[in-house]
Design a protein that fits this description.
The structure is a homodimer. Chain A is α/β, with parallel strands linked by helices. Chain A folds into two domains: about 180 residues, Rossmann fold; about 90 residues, no CATH class. The first copy, chain A, contains 13 helices and eight strands. An eight-stranded mixed sheet of chain A has the order 3-2-1-4-5-6-7-8. In chain A, a hairpin with an 8-residue loop joins strand 6 and strand 7. In chain A, helix 10 crosses helix 13. Chain A is globular and about 60 Å long. The first copy, chain A, starts with 10 loop residues before the first strand and ends with a helix.
């Protein structure tokens, strides 16, 4: 399949009138695209505009692309008309497998074959969604993080019948459209970000269940502890930088035995040489030529800005 | 024991010349205290000053307290002289149990009994540390988060022989000194923040071990996904706000079954009515009278500021 160059896409079709479909609509409008939004029913229109109103406040604060305008939005309840001139389709229909399978069967026929169709699904694999689609090669998961008009992450993964070209095209397009694409090689439940968040969330539930912490203490611990650091550098690099010259190698070689301690209810994997090296090399690649003192200074500047920003945004 | 009113403390003694002891020293100086820092050996002095140099850049950017000055620092290698006029002692000696036990045996005798001694320990319980101390009632854990001069969290928990009065006094004092105290009722491995972070970290290690994600993908997923939201509102409230009118109740009632899905290797606890209610009530308490639309707007303002702040702090 010869796809259009991602830079040539000027019109995006967003399917779905909920917070995710509305969030995507606002995002693409803010990045200067013409957007056609398909709603299942006209009665959804008012709430849909409310979602975009809310999103627009933040998108303006972050800065709109040249030519971006809410006037470039068309709303329709006619699916064929909605996809007619699309350069890209973002589907955010309800998370019900038979509904999505039927939708992709239809989209597979009415959307021109050189147009990529991405699903916002957070819990269903594309392998399942594309089961009844007659043109499944150009379908792919493009999973955003809530709120989708603000958080840049889009996790991209194909189903068994998706082509590698489709996955790459989607990554290139999302990047151009101002997102932070993460291409996954395997379909795994929860993708990357939700799995990590879910591990933390389950530990939090255990702590509340055992009377070890309250929800307020859990949130306070995160807000005042690991989260600002994580927002700046993630978790691997947070440990890499904290260990100075030795970086991740020191972290694993010195604190490796602590992985056997009951510091959470989640058991750690065996710290094999392969795992150690993958972590160490990964962190060294991210660091590049930067010395840890530069990285630590960057981390600190980031945390200062984050703490100030959070304070400025608080109403109480 | 009649402790001094925390507002009357003017001099703090910080024990330890490493990044934690140095970080605490910088923090207390920035909050306008006289600080006496005990180093094990004079040879540690230069690096100790380097740590404070680094910290000071950020502390100035965040804003110093009235009268705060690095001139108010005294460095000594004489432990008795170091604790002589202290209104509070923050101990950040190496994480070696026999060493800490001997140190607390000595501090227990030479520090006036009406002065609280807090340990920065991240991995040892105060019950173990205070074993040989003859005045253990006034000892407590005051565990900071790295970097201690920037992140506000201090987790406070007593050992078996610590008095409740001591725990409360420490919480009051840290709050006055510009920290975010979190008082725990139980001594559990990893306290609150590290347990949560460790669950996420172990899931990350599993993902790398299984070739499901690289360190770079893990950090990118966090930075562009859950972390900015977590830095603003933690995790319980992130879910509460995302579920609109229904809040945490909707989250648990609707997505409760998803806790059985393999979205991480950590199994969730049984979602009992008690656990459900504890989560729901906890979130409602934090929300207070604020409608979820106000909370969502606050979240969005926070994320906008955080994304801008991170961008401004990046060197590449």
């Amino acid at each position: 399949m010869r796809y259009q160059n991602p830079t040539k896409v000027s019109q995006v079709t967003s399917i779905g009138g909920g917070p995710i479909g509305g969030g995507w609509t606002a995002h693409f409008l803010a990045r200067g695209y013409d957007v056609v939004s398909y709603l299942h029913d006209e009665s959804e229109t008012r709430i849909f505009h409310d979602i975009i109103d809310t999103a627009w406040t933040s998108l303006e604060a972050l800065g709109l692309a040249d030519g971006a305008s809410r006037d470039r939005l068309t709303i329709t309840t006619d699916l064929e008309a909605a996809v007619h001139n699309a350069g890209f389709i973002q589907e955010s229909a309800p998370e019900i497998l038979p509904l999505k399978q039927d939708l992709y069967e239809k989209l597979g026929d009415i959307v021109p074959e050189e147009v990529v169709i991405a699903s916002s699904t957070s819990g269903i694999t594309m392998t399942d969604i594309q089961a009844k689609c007659r043109t499944p090669e150009r379908t792919v998961v493009g999973h955003p993080f809530n709120p989708p008009y603000l958080l840049p992450l889009v996790e991209i993964v194909g189903g068994k019948k998706s082509s590698t070209e489709t996955v790459q095209w989607a990554a290139d397009f999302y990047e151009l459209a101002g997102k932070a694409p993460l291409v996954m090689n395997k379909e795994i439940p929860g993708f990357v970000a939700t799995r990590l968040q879910e591990a933390l969330w389950r530990e939090a539930l255990h702590m509340v269940a055992n009377g070890e912490a309250t929800p307020e203490q859990i949130d306070s611990a995160l807000i005042n502890g690991p989260a600002p650091r994580m927002a700046m550098f993630g978790q691997c690099m947070a440990f890499h930088i904290a260990c100075g010259e030795g970086g991740m190698a020191t972290n694993l070689d010195q604190f490796g035995p602590a992985l056997k301690l009951p510091w959470t209810r989640l058991e750690a994997p065996e710290l094999t040489k392969e795992l150690r090296d993958a972590m160490v090399n990964g962190c060294n690649d991210i660091a590049g030529t930067r010395h840890f003192t530069e990285l630590a200074a960057e981390r600190d500047r980031g945390i200062v800005e984050i703490l100030k920003g959070v304070k400025a945004a608080r109403t109480k």
